Amino acid sequence: MSLAPWVLSVLTVGLAAQAHVHASEAAAAPGYYTVQATGSTGWSSMDAKVEAVRETLLAAQVPGAIVALPVKAGDAVKAGQELARIDARMASQGAAASSAQVAAAQAGLNVATKEYERQKQLFAKRYISQAALDGAEAQWRAAQAQVTALQAQAGVAATQTGLHSVRAPYSGIVSSVPVNLGDMAMPGRPLLSLYDPAALRLTAQLTQDQARQLRSGVQVEIPGLTVQRLSIAASQIQLLPTADPLSHTVAVRVQLPANQQGAMPGMFARLWWQGDAADAAQRVLIPSTAVVRRAEMTGVYVQGDNGKPQLRQVRLGLPQGDMVEVLSGLRVGDQVAVEPQAAARVR
């Protein structure tokens, strides 16, 4: 009978501890937010890339060793600046030979011209026949034709000599130089590529319905630029007149403002446009506090079928106050944990 108070005390302590555990679990249980459609139109987006409006791949037109390569990738060049030079010694010798042949032909033409003038004077005095005069005229005309032909050949030789120097067709940035000094250049082999940084554009592949929604203009987002977003008018948007036969998407080109600092071809970009009423039923917002960011993954904890929160990756849109739009990864009716840290502790 003396053990009863001690047993009662143990039972009391055990019940209190169990109640404390249940209270702690209840306090640690995360709250949930039910995903609902907003009923209003929002912004839609699509991945895009930056490309140059003017981008040129300069190739060799004549064979020969590369003897000068004064530029490298990233250099800014002016229009007409020499970018590469090919060994032109043989071409220079050929041009000199052609010039000498032209000089010899012109000397022969001078002789034929003087002879023809003398024959005309003799014919006027009836000292020679008509046949002799015709012969002198034929020689004079042949000498003229020979000079013209040799001058054309000399022009071809001079043009070929000029092809050994590769010059910039416009002011721009050298994007790549796939050859080295001393390499053998062959006709058609790329020597370097050049683009104009003052004229850039965005390209994206959109569905037909998405392309139709671009009539009111778009916004452009390029990570890394000082300007968060750029507003582009509809007049600067071009829809190509053909669609891809496999994906049935339309290529869209968006002209960027001139001399956009920090942008370069190949950069990742995102195209934003205002959706229509048909998109309102699918547009959802969640509290910003529910978002979990781990390295490059963005997600939320969603209540699973077993009642426990499960991490799910999502794609976010624009923030709106304390809420943020979810473009993909959630659907109406999902239960999202508003306290991700508490949800991560639930096992």
Automatic annotation (TrEMBL):
<dbReference type="InterPro" id="IPR058792">
    <property type="entry name" value="Beta-barrel_RND_2"/>
</dbReference>
<dbReference type="InterPro" id="IPR006143">
    <property type="entry name" value="RND_pump_MFP"/>
</dbReference>
<dbReference type="Pfam" id="PF25954">
    <property type="entry name" value="Beta-barrel_RND_2"/>
</dbReference>
<comment type="similarity">
    <text>Belongs to the membrane fusion protein (MFP) (TC 8.A.1) family.</text>
</comment>
<dbReference type="Pfam" id="PF25967">
    <property type="entry name" value="RND-MFP_C"/>
</dbReference>
<keyword id="KW-0732">Signal</keyword>
<dbReference type="Pfam" id="PF25876">
    <property type="entry name" value="HH_MFP_RND"/>
</dbReference>
<dbReference type="InterPro" id="IPR058624">
    <property type="entry name" value="MdtA-like_HH"/>
</dbReference>
<feature type="domain" description="Multidrug resistance protein MdtA-like alpha-helical hairpin">
    <location>
        <begin position="99"/>
        <end position="161"/>
    </location>
</feature>
<dbReference type="Pfam" id="PF25917">
    <property type="entry name" value="BSH_RND"/>
</dbReference>
<protein>
    <submittedName>
        <fullName>Efflux RND transporter periplasmic adaptor subunit</fullName>
    </submittedName>
</protein>
<dbReference type="InterPro" id="IPR058627">
    <property type="entry name" value="MdtA-like_C"/>
</dbReference>
<feature type="domain" description="CusB-like beta-barrel">
    <location>
        <begin position="202"/>
        <end position="275"/>
    </location>
</feature>
<dbReference type="InterPro" id="IPR058625">
    <property type="entry name" value="MdtA-like_BSH"/>
</dbReference>
<feature type="domain" description="Multidrug resistance protein MdtA-like barrel-sandwich hybrid">
    <location>
        <begin position="59"/>
        <end position="189"/>
    </location>
</feature>
<feature type="domain" description="Multidrug resistance protein MdtA-like C-terminal permuted SH3">
    <location>
        <begin position="284"/>
        <end position="339"/>
    </location>
</feature>
<feature type="signal peptide">
    <location>
        <begin position="1"/>
        <end position="23"/>
    </location>
</feature>
<keyword id="KW-0813">Transport</keyword>
